[in-house]
User: What shape does this take?
Amino acid sequence: MGLDFHSAQFLRHQKRRGVRFDRLLTLGHQAVYMPASVYLAQLKDMGVAQGQPDFADDFFRGLGATSLDFMDASNYEGANVVQDLNQPLAGPQAETYDCVFDGGSLEHVFNFPIALRSCMELVKPGGHLIIITPWNNYPGHGFYQFSPELFYSALSAENGYAVEEMLIVQRNHWYAVASPAAVRGRIELVNGDPTLLFLAARRVGRPQIFSAWPQQSDYSARWGADHASQTPPPAPPRLKEALLKRSATLRALQRRWQARKYRRMASVANRRNFQPVDLAD
Assistant: This one.
């Protein structure tokens, strides 16, 4: 759990967008994962006169936090709100914070739906839940790696939330990640780089969270379709089918073409799913 350069860049971008950090809860006491000189330069740029580079408390105060709480399963790193996120919230903590920030905890909580619901409940209406969490190429880091679909489906109007931004960074270039429901397709990514999801969601209402469990959007669309009115898919051309059946070479070429097509579709080059964005000041 900690603040690296890209996390700091994303959080400062959220501040410029108008996110309020006045009363802030972080999951875990956020350490600093960047050189001290880089971190102190960030603080200076934010108008923070000085700071200690072990934990990111001064950075959050630079974002505007006037009240700063840390939640963890124990107080061994100075957490002042002790809560096992595998269990529902203990005590009257709902709608307490302007912002709840997870910089890398939820993937380590086995009972993830309960943990996510607790985070959602802690946010005041109009406030924000900000999550930075693994998507790709973090094997063994935690219990889970999460997909965009999960957060678009869970942080939905039905649960009193709206995802305002979901981004990834690849080789120092930022991309907005589309909603699977909006593009009517799955948002997949095949790459060789460790990839985090950076997302900000605003609480827009007070419905009972997860009164109905989220469903993956492409399946929901199929279940809700009027199948009787759908025409069956066209049959494959007979000549093509016959040639592929007789020629191992053609089958191999087809597999290579399909694999190449999929790699492009599941990459940041796919502008339907990934749009370049500029997070510069």
Summary: The two ends are 25 Å apart (CA to CA). The chain has two domains: 2-218, 233-265.
